[in-house]
Amino acid sequence: MEFAFYIAALVAVVATIRVISHTNPVHALLYLIVSLLAISAVFFSLGAYFAGALEIIVYAGAIMVLFVFVVMMLNLGDSVQDQERAWLKPSVWIGPGLLSLVLLVVLIYAISSVNDQGIDGNVVDAKAVGIALFGPYVLAVELASMLLLAGLVVAFHVGREHKPGDILSSDTAKRKAEEKA
Fold this sequence. Notes:
Elements: H1 2-21, H2 25-45, H3 49-73, H4 79-86, H5 90-112, H6 126-134, H7 138-159, H8 170-180
């Protein structure tokens, strides 16, 4: 399993560097998804199967849907259509595709080499997970949800464009009046 750990860690580092270095938000999101999947592969290779599954469900699933929603909400109009056509070229998706292929090979290797490691197969129901999350960690869960909501509101206000006839803030209205004078 060391092989799976090191390859998944390498994929996570490369994908995270690509997240930081990309200026296009959609490309960065693609690499961020690959990075989060690689982190879950690291958890799986260490034997923390529940943490790996939560990584996929919570981060690569729910949080990334939120990020994609924010990017879609900040749509720039007709200029984006030409850019979306350019995204269909292989040069855009070949990087995340290759990293995902490496993760698939690691996953197949890890599944084929798993022997009995004492997993007893007890079912953990949603109630037990909810009690664990909202028992001792209720403050952390609520703070994280408030932080995500605040980030969404800020992204909406920063990214929206002001159209003629929109109600502007008092500072913007004053500035426009001063420019006309």
